[in-house]
Protein 1
Amino acid sequence: MTKETSLKQRTIKGLFWSFSDLVANQGIQFLIQIILARLLLPEHFGLVGMILVLIAISNALIESGMVQALVREQNSTQAEYSTVFFFNLFMALALYGVLFCAAPIISDFFRTGELTLIIRILSIGLIINSFGMIQRAQIIKKLDFRKQTIVNIVAGIVSGVVAVICALCGLGVWSLVIKILCMQLFQSVLFWYFNRWIPSFLFKYESFKKLFGFGSKLMLAGLLSTFYSNIFNIIIGRMYSATRLGYYSNAQKLNEVASSSITSALQSVTYPVLSSIQNDEEKLKYGFKKIIRISTFIHFPLMIGLAAIANPLVYLLFGEKWMPMAIYFQLLCIAGMMYPLHAINLNILQVKGKANLYLYLSILKKIMLTIYIFIAIWLDTGVLGLLGAAILDSYVSFLINGFFSGKEIGYSSREQLKDVSFFYAASIIMGLVVYLSGMMLPGNTLVKLIPQVLVGLVLYWAMCTIAKVKELREFSDIISPIVKKLLGKKGTKLAQ
């Protein structure tokens, strides 16, 4: 077996388990989210949404980019793993203390007194998370996404069941808090169970300096990204209401099931794979181009299709009280179209060790987004104006990322746009037809939804077939082993 064949098999295997994680874990989480949305009020989700930005920023500080640095290192030592483990634990304890003391101030900022206790309880998850970071990094480095999938599925089911029981018992917003803590606890425990690594009681300054030198740039970039990806939670929670934030939070969660989750799956698989061929320029460019095309072949029609069926989808899943979130979801889908391109382009900069450039680009893009947001607030365009700013930022950011990553491997953003232009145009045409067909059909739920989905699938497949898009065959090559694995049949040929 050649090295290239082995790499391809590892990539397909990684994609299988990573997308299995996506379908199973995110599917389970989303089903639980639907049940909780029907049991709880939008304002309950809004209250938790105000806090999650603080938790996300704290987790980025705890990790400090050093986990990514470990994944990138081809021969990490026990000393390096142990050093990062104890650094993560120390940071988690320190940040918990900061959030505990700052909880009343944060509550005053959002003008919601009950946030104080919620912050102090929810922040315990920082300490819990820090215990499983090295185990997760080692599993990712081995491309063992099967174990990661099992961990997320089991933790998701257990935490979800507990949360639903709490909601049925009338615990309200605390159902969501308990769900998050249970998820983090079971993930950490299971990562330890599946990856029996024990830290040594040592802290090597040389190891810390080497990893932090690379990881700190990623940490700062990650902090900016985390803050700005949650900035709308802060603005909506502060300027509008918990109910409005609840609509936005669930629209974002629905969007993440299709957009951010797929992006995360692609990024988690492609980063270690591309890292393994980082010194072979020709192979790196070829692999990057293949990933770009296959990901947009899938992602573009998915996001446009979801935007087209937003109204009947929201009505069916969440009920009439959640219908104001439909327009938020549509705009988030349009912004989310470019997420895989962002992630894969940024992977190239990390693979090439361009941590400084990665950081500088992150700062530049956030400055631009800040300008867009200030304009939206100044014009008093409300939540819709903020989401319009997110769409503009998504497309401009891709052009910036693509320009600099393209220079590293000789594959410019213009070439990338050319390669994905057919998928974009075909998706837009498909989306318009699906949306118009929904306007002509009666009813609000399945009466519209099923015909719209069928029309979209058939139309997109027909356009790709007529254009002789080779990604149809490549998608089949990826899906075929997955179907064989699921059905337990060998030699089964996937129908074209």
Protein 2
Amino acid sequence: MDALIIVSGLLLIAVGWLDVFHTLLNPSGRGFLTRGVFAAAWATTRRARRARVLAGPGSMVVVIALWSGLQVVGWALVYLPSIPEGFAYFIDAQGYNPFVEAVYFSTTTLTTLGFGDLVPTASWIRIVAPIQALAGFALLTAAASWFVQMHAALARRRSLALRLTQAREAGFGDVIAQPGSDASTAVILESIAASVATVRVDYLQTSESYYFSEADERASLSAGLHVAWQFALSSSHSADPGVRAAGAVLTAALHDLADCLRSSFLPGDESTPDILGRYSADHVFRHRDRSG
């Protein structure tokens, strides 16, 4: 029975770290527990725009709590068969529940608090406990790194959305197909294409960023991708070959992004404009033509 308890604890520990690995280190960036939490929160807030804005940040907090809980309970099960024989108590331990004691020691060890009222005396626990403390420090570092990764991905997405909104408001779409369009127009189109490609990479490596909705429509890429598609269509009618080439690059970038959305978040066989429309609908915003 003791062996079964220890094996169960080790499995919980492994499941937690496997999810951390797939979320932060695997190039696909898809932790199975993490993805499930985000998808559930996204589905739950589908009809509530204000709540949907909190779905992403709230899911991050839940996932980090889940990672921590798996480690605390997993290590507690590893220690449980050795309570109380494997520890020295510096308080009156009469009446304490063994599982509660195991959770208490696991929590203080994982967080490196170490109050000193419960000290391991078994040799193997004296060796294992510092390893758990190192795991706790690694978990804290992983959580902080995840916040940094997510913030960077969201900043790039919002930057592209604002740039598209500003270009639309400045009438850039009308300039593209005019006979006077020149190299500067091609440069702008190419820079937008590069930003779209970066967002595609972010959705592959930080897939949880999909589940963040913006309160500000101007900073919402879901409300701006149709603008990029209009720019790409307009460029195909330009008399300048450089503008047409830049537009073709933007079109290819949008097709790649649509393929990424289709394979990871919005399964179906629709065309790129339809996928972009579903993406906008999934993020609450609906396309409204406000050009000019």
Protein 3
Amino acid sequence: MIRYSFAALAAVLSSSANAQQSQSAPISPQVPVVAVAAPAKAAAITARAVTAPTGNVTTLPANTELLLRLSQEVSSKRMKEGETFRVALAQDVMIGNFIVLPKGTPGTGYISYRTGKGAFGKSAKMEITMRSLDLPNGRTIALTGTTRQEGTGNTGATVGTAVAVGVFSAFVTGRSAVFAEGREVRGFTRETLEVALPQ
């Protein structure tokens, strides 16, 4: 008969229990731990400062006088009140050593008043008013300035002569008012204009 001490018996029972637990417990596979990288940050938007133009800014005052040249004949005989005609700058407009409005810049004017020639030697009267200048960049500069013209060549003496020879004076008519092509007239800027001068 084999005899075990109490301590030896306890050790045998403990070893047997551990073996049974090891056989019944499922074996867990070794799962590798993968490090997940944090999402990359989007590149920051680069801000750009908004600045004023670098050139020196000045102004061309309102009522600046301009010398303009008619690009066509304007006659009360062929044209009516309200009709337009072509003009151009006759000389450069400058601020200091800078040309602001160059010679030859085109523009328009219109007939602001007109009367036809009439009987008794009455000549026509006509007024023309400057309207605008048209810059190459599409901008329009408003102008003003009026010039008056009357028909010339008929006087009271002409009517008197007609009566003396027995011609009814009502058939003596005056002359048309004519602005010849190339005639120079004055115009003025209607508003103050901001001008950026190069540095």
